[in-house]
Protein 1
Amino acid sequence: MVRGKSGVVVQVDPDGRHPITQGSPPATQRLMRVEGNGNIVVAILLLVLGTGAAATALLGPLVAGIIRYRTSEGAIDQIVGGDVAALLLVFPISILAGVLVWRGHRAGPVLALSPAAYALYMYSQLALGGDVFRYEGNSDKFFPLYLGLFVLSGFIAVRSWSLIDRTKLPSASRRLTRAIGFFLLVVALFLAFGLHLPGLIDAWSAEPSSTEYLADPVVFWLVKFMDLAMVVPVLAVVGIGLIRRSARLAFLRYAAIGWSALLGSSVAGMALMMQLNGDPAGTLANTIAFGAFALIGLVLAALVHRPLFETP
């Protein structure tokens, strides 16, 4: 318990986040109650997001097969790989972030950005990527589930961003920040020129031969659009900013590397499943590349988030 300059006695709770004042003005007390309620709402929504991600994976072709996607077998292999990542990473991270936000821990809202960004990307593709005229299935009946997870993720991302107290964040390691910047830039370049450009050239040719394009044109163009319009520009801008030590972009290292680690793990799972099932679109080079990106991303994400759990 301390006495402020204005003479108001302030008692700080054990985690140091929410001050408890004696004789504080009513407006201050209302602000404290609103912030506390906001934490509880975000915490509950993170628990719902994690449960929804796990339920979607379990209901899909990975386990129960209740959700039957209107895609080719090759695309279903990719969905299965993404479901594995959702169960092993997105689900526990969302639950952990929810618990930390509930307790008012400084790492909670920072950690919440990663699964929220991942869900925005992934569930929009699951909602829009099917072809109802070419393939049998019922995934379109689960559109409300994907829509709900998408809206939920957007709210979590915006609200978590506002809950982060940047004054309580640890100082960034220059070496680690630059390493994250170079990693994000390499991933962006690989996605743009190593993965998507050859597919685009083939699709624009007189006689396309790409299995992914011919089997699932809707999924093909949706992934190309989202990656080239969102993933590549964001990773490139943040990566260059971190390399140049931009103070305004340094804070984005948490969300960018966390999102990249989850997305890279999901794509690595997709590539591995395609390789194991003998999909013609699956290559050993892509499996190794995405596996390496996923491993490096997870290590960098763990290193940059670890100081948040240390005592300030």
Protein 2
Amino acid sequence: MRPVLVVNPRSDESFARLAETLVANGAETPADLEARLVAHYPMARVRARSLSNEPTVIWYVYREGSWTPSTTS
């Protein structure tokens, strides 16, 4: 099942697009996606959300290694 990516910061469209492209091109685990992202964004981290009985696979994708506020400009 392809994961839903929750990308942070949401305002960085190029980062979100890269993450989606990497998943579409074969990144099958959070660790795999993280390894591919780090080539472009050295602080990137990917964490799987693990809630019991959740039907959707969700990965949190952080450009700066943890949550950062999105810019509006």
Protein 3
Amino acid sequence: MKDASYPDSWSRTWTKDFTGCYMLNDRITLDAIRTLLDAHAAYGKAAYREAAVRGGEFLLRARMPNPQPAWAQQYDRHMHPVWDRAFEPPAITGFESQDVLETLLLLHARTGERRFLEAVPESLAYLRRSLLPDGTLARFYELRTNRPLFFTKKYALTYDRGEMPSHYSFVVTSRLEAIARRYQDLVQHGPDGKAAEPPLAELAAGAREAIAAMDERGAWTEPGMVRDVEGHKVVPPDGVIASETFIQRVTALSRYVGRARGHARP
């Protein structure tokens, strides 16, 4: 397998002809690595650990070179970023790159192999530099220029985030500070060390954010797409309740309440 690299050129319009070979989108590779690590922990079979490590080696090779040392959603056989769906261009991704960093930290924690840890600081610094003014990350950054990329409702690439489709997250939450804390925990305490608890004030801020984000019913809603009983895509005007967001918000509240009552995090 080749190391990831930039194509000489790439189409600004959807090619429709998917040529991808390697996928990070939808956590396909990352969930496979985590499952293999869990299987090794449960059953002790060396083959599971070896397969997870090979997956980690792929992640290291899939990292793009400078000036954008992070990851694309999908790559072709030459390890160049490529189009997938009409709204998934060849680009550096702010969302899946965070998933990759978390997976590399998990690989180090489970295997003790330092090479997975060593890849993190440079990518973390790059993503921090790429934060949007409001502290979020773009889902996509243009190859080489690093300009945030968005789409119009007709799926035309644009640098303007004013008229994005609502069914897809073109702007994503930054988890970089949590990733940085986990990295520091592993550096200071080693793969078997106990992760340091974040300050109570930080947990309180997360709890306040979760409460502030509730609607009048006490639910967390956001723009999104669901399917009706006939399987048609529907974008509810009042938004959707996403399981991932629900879990994140409840976790934030639970961690604060547990600490405030003097209990350690499970």
Protein 4
Amino acid sequence: MRKNPLLGRRILMTRAREQSAESTLLFEKLGAEVIVFPTIEIVPPLRWDALDQAVDRLRTYDWIIFTSANGVHFFWQRLKKRKRRLPPSLKVCAIGPATAKALKGKGVPVHYVPKKYIAEAVLQGFEEVDLRGKRILLARARIARDVLPKGLRKMGAKLDVVETYRTVKPRAGGRKLRRLLAEEKIDVITFTSSSTVNHFVDLLKKENIKTALKGVSIACIGPVTARTAKARGLKVVVQPDQYTIPGLAQAIAKYFIPLKPRRTRF
């Protein structure tokens, strides 16, 4: 791969602002100019009751599953507030390296990380474990797919699903987004979750999607996000084999390598 394969390319990043610093640096090292335009905000649950109750009875669980680093962050807030710790008997599953890294940063050993960072891969791994009668705590966002809960219960697990955070749409930004697209200076838009896609499209309101995104490449971090994008009328041209930000960055770089580099706009 040539040096600075994204030189002169302008990337619109839609993930939450607090998650964008490391991602921005990664794309900038590849030569890109990054515009951080969050279409989601990560916020706490409206009520802590369910999570607090789960924290207070952690010793009754056999497994705890974290689906994101966001979940780890807010879960630990409540652990500290309740003056609790994860019991050593509790096994921990993390979906994805970023989630595993967040847990290891808390000094927590991770017992299982699926090969692919989606719910279906978690279920495949647990097929080798007898879950009948096992108690599992699933810490995740308020809005999420039902694939994992349904699959775990079908395997015989006694499952508690607790909301650890919410993803909400920023109150403003539609006008700025339409202006950025109208200037035709965006080369690629990255989406890292279904929420980023849905809120992005909602911000455009009644704009014609194909017209608004003419000349813009769409990159999605994984198959779930890509399915959502396609369902909302977006044409996805980049999807990495590894469902991570580094994987996404490399896939975007490879996509643009055959194309003539643009003059930098800096």
